[in-house]
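Risk register update: the risk of archive-format incompatibility is retired. Evidence:
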Amino acid sequence: MHKPLLLLTWLISLASAFNIKLPHTEKKDRLGSNAVLACASYINTLKWSFDNSLVPGFYSTICSYSPAFDTWSLCIFNSLTDQVFPTDNSSFEESLGNVRNTCSFVDKKFSNISLEQYYLSLNNASSHALKNYSSVESLSTSVRVDRETRSKWVRAFHAHAYNLDISSVYGAYLSYYFVIVGLIAVFFHMSHYNGLNRALFGCRIVNYIRGRFVLPTFLVDKHANHFNFLNLEVFTGLMPSSLEAWIIIGYSLANIIFLSVSYIIDPYNLIFNSHLSQFTRLLADRSGILAFTQFPLIIIFTARNSFLEFLTGLKFNSFISFHKWIGRIMVLNATIHSLSYSLFAIVNHAFILSNKQLYWKFGIAGITVLFVLLVLSLGVVRKRHYEFFLYTHIILAILFFYCCWKHVKIFNGWKEWIVLSLFIWGLEKLFRIWNILRFRFPKATLINLNTSNNPHDEMFKVIIPKHNRRWHSKPGQYCFIYFLHPLIFWQCHPFTIIDEGDKCVLVIKPKNGLTRFIYNKILQSLNGKLQLRVAIEGPYGPSNHKLGDFDHLLLLSGGTGLPGPLDHAIKLSRKPDKPTSIDLIITIKNLSFLNGYKSEVLELKNSRSNVNVQIYLTQQAAVAKGANARDQLINYNDIMAELTNFAHIGNARPNFSNAIDNTMKNMPPRDSLAIVCCGPPVLVDDVRNSVSQKLLDYPERIVEYFEEYQCW
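Archived output:
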């Protein structure tokens, strides 16, 4: 768990040793810079005896024409001394940097204006500046800007610069929102270690909140299972759980508030043509900066980060849910930014001119890439073409970051959000590579389990020897498996495995893509067995449920969700301080899948295991026609005979709601119960809602629900 922190510390130390300077957005709302720009803008409105067509640029007159430059330096000095002690010239001297930067847009030679020249122009203006110049048609000498005019223009630039700074602050607050959410999650999760969970989850008020607002599905009875919006399959997706939904709603409301407050509007419209022009520019800046500040969060919540899962107890699919919705809010902010700037350009009759600017072109490219990325992230694409979605997502994300970098390059700010995001992304990739290398690359044995030749019974077992004996996974954890075949070695899929000390075991039901390709290779091999090198990345997921501390344990599994609950039952049955009762309920179509974990299930036959095993078969076993039918039937009967010696066998779907109700009703009042569930999406959603309802029915019971199903 500490490895990512060590790697992060090492990278920071390396950056420090090589004196690598990261981009940093300086504070925009400073009196010096406001005074420089305010005085420059006002002086540009005056009529000077200077043909600025000879030196193009907005600031060409004040930078190239001495009387205008002298007026500028005097105006800056007076604006600064309006606010600070008159004998203090440090602010005036510091403003020279802003003067150089402003004039460098006219000609690079102006970036070398010396402090001596700066003071000389101030002294010239102080001695010769005109006070009354309103009637002069063509100015050829410096003038003295009155205090009221200076103040109006400085306040106007303060309003604009303040918006840039407060936007960055509010963007940081949006990130702090998830820090606070994480700290609350850490508090509740770590309560398992100090026994506080018994007091917390035995409280009627807490259980009412959990049963009503935390555990159940949100709006529809689906969380693990996909739902179709407006009954259109193209708009299929996964609905957040209630807890995830309330967190996302809170984040969305915070974003709306931060988009809506703390604007300072200049009543004189000195910088902008109208109040509409002024507000669209402020909104454009605010929304764009808020979008930028969310980049690191979007990357963090895509990382396979076992450390954050360990601290908070939140699952990876919760992180993915946050990633999706933060991304959608970011797209909304970016859209507001684009539309507001377009409206601003139209109102100011500068749309055609703006289209020629490089930052504008990259802005258009960035928002276009973003919308393409959003469309290719729709649930129907992820569900049907996951590999296509994954790699296009990565490529488009990199292209989007590049466009954003070029978009803000001229503004000298906000690039640190991109750098931080890419740093997190690179650090996570290094950690994943290390995770793969430490398991090494053993040669796994892949065995076909389908003896009936029935397509519904297609399954294969993977037995992976462990070359690194210090590598361990805990019950319920999952790993990403890479099958190192030349045609598909870069693809990986997550599977829950059972760690048996010297080997890892998993059973896979082939679908499309990777697993179907591997299954076909097994069928082509001799005797239905295949040797193939694999790589394992992981383990990830919950590793500290502390299930052994509960008095009662209810393990609910269905179909391919069996490995986690089964592994929990096996490991806990070996401990001397195991729960008083352990109930393992297995729901499968027939014994074909269970046959893959036959040795593991039969380990629970030991009378000392204290595990009450219930197996429910929802379909009759399919028997092949032909020469192997008799052998298959004998094998089926042998398994049934071994199972009936210690397990209850049923031939219908179990009522999980009744099982939960009976367990909660019959256990002693102050005993604790842990319910662990993994299985098909429909089963998981049904159990989630059942547990939520039972918490409302039995609010004094100490019950915790652990869902090990992973949504991708």
